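FORM 12-B: Structure-to-Sequence Request
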């Protein structure tokens, strides 16, 4: 018996040192036009016996494990009972376990009842990574996100209501040059209203596998932003993002033009000052051939 992953395998950057168990394969939605992560897989829920055997096996070699990430992209799509079963066994076989997390789509958060989320939190599921991407309903529809401004806000607030740590992602440049204003304005509103614990800003990068699909679904000519225009979006996002509670904000993903971060709202002026300095020194920006989504 050995832990054998079904590739490709993805996890958030902050889960780099976590033990990963694939409790589902792929993504049950798999229609976001900008995302190429699970296009080679059919969605499937793995049998309990396989999951349990892998947990038992890995616990013998890594009993000191403190963090676990449940992959693939749709672990929360599992039934509440199966997730509780997984969580209880994880904490039973890893005595030092401190955190279990997974990706969560807005629709999956909304499909879980309050009682189910409360039970999952009590069983030890602590953190969700939610792709917001944009707050603009126009853009969300054009990129076939399967969510709206309203459903995203409802899902995030629902998660926070039950004490989950929330890490959310948004994508700079997702509306292209045509929709840059409303993209940033509406995204800042979503972030301000939900105040996730963490926010990560990525920059749009279309891999070959989804480039043509993205362009076709967008429904009109799409003009990518130049680097300085991306910085303009980031500057406006930081300016308009006004959370009522502290939010760790990062734009340090491999897709970004430069690594920027701080805690909002305390570091807002420092971040804005740094962005302005970058705009005056474009030679400092990361070369495009080093950027990946």
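FORM 12-B RESPONSE
SEQUENCE OUT:
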């Amino acid at each position: 018996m050995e832990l054998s992953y079904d590739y490709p395998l993805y996890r958030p950057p902050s889960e780099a040192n976590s033990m990963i168990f694939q409790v589902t394969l792929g993504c049950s939605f798999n229609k976001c036009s900008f995302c190429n992560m699970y296009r080679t897989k059919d969605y499937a829920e793995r049998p309990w016996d396989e999951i349990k055997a892998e947990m038992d096996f890995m616990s013998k070699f890594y009993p000191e494990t403190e963090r676990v990430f449940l992959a693939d992209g749709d672990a929360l799509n599992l039934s509440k009972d199966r997730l509780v079963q997984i969580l209880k066994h994880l904490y039973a076989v890893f005595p030092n376990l401190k955190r279990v997390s997974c990706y969560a789509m807005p629709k999956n958060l909304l499909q879980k009842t309050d009682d189910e989320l409360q039970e999952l939190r009590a069983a030890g599921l602590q953190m969700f990574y939610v792709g917001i991407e944009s707050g603009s309903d126009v853009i969300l529809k054009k990129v076939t996100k399967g969510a709206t401004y309203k459903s995203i806000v409802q899902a995030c607030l629902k998660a926070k209501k039950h004490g989950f740590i929330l890490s959310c992602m948004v994508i700079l440049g997702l509306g292209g040059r045509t929709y840059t204003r409303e993209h940033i304005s509406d995204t800042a509103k979503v972030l301000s209203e939900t105040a996730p614990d963490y926010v990560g800003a990525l920059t749009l990068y279309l891999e070959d596998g989804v480039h043509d699909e993205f362009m076709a679904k967008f429904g009109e000519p799409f003009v990518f932003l130049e680097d300085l225009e991306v910085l303009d979006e980031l500057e406006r996002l930081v300016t308009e993002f006004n959370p009522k509670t502290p939010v760790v904000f990062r734009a340090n993903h491999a897709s970004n033009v430069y690594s920027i971060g701080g805690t909002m709202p305390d570091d807002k002026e420092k971040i804005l000052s740094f962005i302005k300095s970058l705009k005056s020194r474009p030679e400092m920006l990361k070369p495009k051939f080093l950027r990946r989504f």
